[in-house]
Amino acid sequence: MELNGVRVSRETQGRLQHFAELFQKWAKTINLVAPSTINDLWQRHIADSAQIFQLHPKPARWVDLGSGGGFPGIITAILLAEQADGHVDLVESNQKKAAFLRVCLRECEARGAVHAVRIEEAVKVIPYCDVISARALAELDVLLDYAAPWAERNENIRLLLHKGRDYEREVEKARGRWEFGLVKHNSVVERDSVVLELNRPRRRI
Which has fewest Cβ within 10 Å: 86, 92, 143, 193? Predict the structure, then answer.
């Protein structure tokens, strides 16, 4: 099986398939994604999430903010299962969604843990990370506020963030309060979307 042109093992394929089955089951009772996108689950959500991991395909400590329906956090945790090390901390304050995420991690034998806390409180239970991911959560300047406690502890931290066609406005707004290195990766799934890779974020004095 290939995801965005990258081969994955039969074991990973099986884990992703089982996640898709769990997702379809749980989505009947709780709102995991926009209902109009469920029929395009593999391309719109699973493959779209996988490209985040493919930008940093090595063992690392990840924090996924607002994990919701598992994108990209659960997909990252499944892909990490092929690695010798690495871990995803999924932050989701909604208790029903957190329960769904825990079932997915357990049944898909993925490498991660779920923290049912507010993002602002998460650093108390997750003191360190190498990479922060988020998808369809908040504007860039807000995401930088969320990421700041971890960035202060790790100057080499990377942020990998899905953004839509309005990303340039978000970047311009964020630069009013923040300094950061930026690399734009065009989405391989959504023509009008990008993945923004930020490094060394710090508040302007």
Answer: 193
Decide: 132 and 65 in contact? Cβ < 8 Å: yes
Residue-level pLDDT at 56: 93
Residues flagged as binding site:
66, 71, 119-120, 135
* CATH number, domain with residue 42: 3.40.50.150
pLDDT tens-digit series, residues 66-120: 999 999 999 999 999 988 899 999 999 999 999 999 999 999 999 999 999 999 9
Instruction: Enumerate the β-bridge partners of residue 30.
Output: none
Q: How many domains does the chain have?
A: 1
Does the pLDDT at position 40 exceed 80?
no
Enter the tokens of residue 62.
């990840």
Q: What is the pLDDT of residue 117?
A: 98
Residue type, 35: P
Strands 61-65 and 87-91: parallel
Spacing of C-alpha 76 from chain mean position: 7
Domain that holds residue 156: 2-203
How far apart are the C-alpha atoms of 89 and 74, rounded to whole Å? 10
- Which residues are part of a known binding site for S-adenosyl-L-methionine? 66, 71, 119-120, 135
Q: What does the DSSP assignment read for 73-93?
A: HHHHHHHHTTSSS-EEEEE--
